[in-house]
Amino acid sequence: MTTTVAFEDLKSLAGGSLGTSRWLDVDQTRINTFADATDDHQWIHVDPERAKDGPFGAPIAHGYLTLSLVIPLWTELLDVTGVTTKINYGLNKVRFPAPVPAGSRIRLSGTLADVSDITGGAQVTADLVVEIENAEKPACVLQGIFRFLR
User: Fold this and answer.
1) Which residue segments constitute the domains of the chain, with CATH numbers given?
2) Distance CA 4, CA 18 (A)
3) What is the pTM of this model?
4) Do the beta carbons of residue 87 and residue 71 sit within 8 Å?
5) Any idea what the Cα angle at residue 125 is, between residues 124 and 129, rounded to 5°?
6) Which of 83, 84, 136, 146 is nearest to 110 (CA)?
7) 63, 19, 17: which is closest to 44 by C-alpha?
């Protein structure tokens, strides 16, 4: 469920959980499309037959595909009203503890670690985790930085 907050009240969320996004399918078609877009056609991603005998026993999503899906899932966690621009400013830290097998579902959970004033708006630092359904380890753990400008 999306947390919607007015810009003026954004700081009140600092330190709190933003909950989780919906589950998102990461199927072989999505993986192949990402491979085409990035010219990364490594067999562990796009060759299901060969990948069966590989280190993961099946094709896996690219780490950067998993990372790129953070943005649409992030928009399901937090919506700030009263701003003119929302910017994905960057990342402080990214790790990929577990691969995402083709056919898996992922979701994003997050905590608003910090909200600070910047010229023209606010900068938000969020501790985020990309979870894999029914998996022990997360697919991705990261700290994202977002800017909301007035």
Assistant:
1) 3-26+61-149 (3.10.129.10)
2) 10
3) 0.96
4) no
5) 130
6) 146
7) 63
State the Cα–Cα distance between residues 76 and 74, nearest whole angstrom: 5
Count CB atoms within 10 A of the CB of residue 69: 23
One-letter amino acid of 28: Q
- pLDDT one-digit tens code per residue, 73-120: 999 999 999 999 999 999 999 999 999 999 999 999 999 999 999 999
Number of H helices, E strands in the chain: 5, 8
- In the structure encoding, which two tokens stand for residue 57, read together? 């026993």
3-state secondary structure of 135: coil
Strand pairing partners for 76? none
Q: What number of CA atoms fall less than 13 Å from residue 81's CA on the CB side?
A: 6
* CA separation for the pair 92, 143 (Å, rounded): 5
